[in-house]
Design brief:
By secondary structure, the chain is an alpha/beta fold. It is about 45% helix and about 15% strand. It has one domain: Rossmann fold (3-Layer(aba) Sandwich). It contains nine helices and seven strands, in the order E-H-E-E-H-E-H-H-E-H-H-E-H-H-H-E. The protein starts with 5 loop residues before the first strand and ends in an 8-residue tail after the last strand.
């Protein structure tokens, strides 16, 4: 349980991030979400932040610390996609996705870790993707940014592991979101055939794993990659 903990979820206004924030609220945590637009779920503090801009993150996190207290759990979830095949991928298509998905995690975790070091307790949870280790045509930028989170979490574990701070990666597969709902039924069926579980996950199934990683039960787990993908990425 995460009762009373101060939690920040980046990109917590929709999709998986929103489900994670709602789950922490249900467990009694004090939850803030960062968003460029929109609001987090009921019971959360929403602050505006752009994860590609360290100054913007600093202002947002200072506000969270003033309102809720020192940040104890950070969930780096904010991410974008700009899918296209390598030969059509522009420099900006690559750089902007890496700057948001990987650079964003760097900036957010760097800022949050200061309070964690002082408290000698912290949970860093990075939301990756099955694609990070499995690969996906048309997603060289996205897959690179998501697999980079694994090296990030493992290096952070080596740096901060003795200070009561863990860093783990959650790698969701296909999740029921607005994005997957927009796919043609044929395409959805094709994807489901490749997933041993035979279905997409709910965002709440990802949220349950994230809140568990933030709990005392997971204190001895660090540098791990936990797939929530119905068996799609086995062996990766």
């Amino acid at each position: 349980m995460s009762s009373g903990r101060v939690v920040v979820v980046t990109g917590g206004n929709r999709g998986i991030g929103r489900a994670i924030a709602a789950r922490f609220v249900a467990e009694g945590a004090k939850v803030a979400v960062t968003a460029r637009s929109g609001e987090g779920p009921e019971g959360t503090l929403t602050v505006r932040a752009d994860v590609t801009d360290a100054a913007s993150i600093n202002i947002a996190f200072s506000e969270i610390e003033r309102e809720l207290g020192p940040i104890e759990v950070v969930v780096a979830n904010a991410g974008i996609t700009k899918d296209t095949l390598l030969l059509r991928m522009s420099e900006d298509d690559f750089d902007s996705v890496v700057a948001t998905n990987l650079g964003g995690a760097f900036r957010v975790v760097k800022r949050a870790s200061k309070g964690m070091l002082k408290a000698r307790w912290g949970r860093v949870i990075l939301i990756s993707s099955v694609v990070g280790l499995y690969g996906s045509a048309g997603q060289i930028n996205y897959a690179s940014s998501k697999s980079g989170l694994v090296g990030f979490a493992r290096s952070l574990t080596r740096e901060l592991g003795s200070r009561g701070i863990t860093a783990n990666v959650v790698a969701p597969g296909f999740i029921e979101t607005d994005m997957t709902a927009a796919l043609a039924e044929e395409t959805q069926a094709e994807y489901k055939r490749s997933i041993p579980a035979g279905r997409f996950a709910t965002a709440d199934e990802v949220a349950g794993v994230v809140t568990w990683l933030a709990s005392d039960d997971a204190a001895y787990i660090s540098g791990a990659v936990i797939p929530v993908d119905g068996g799609l990425g086995m062996g990766h």
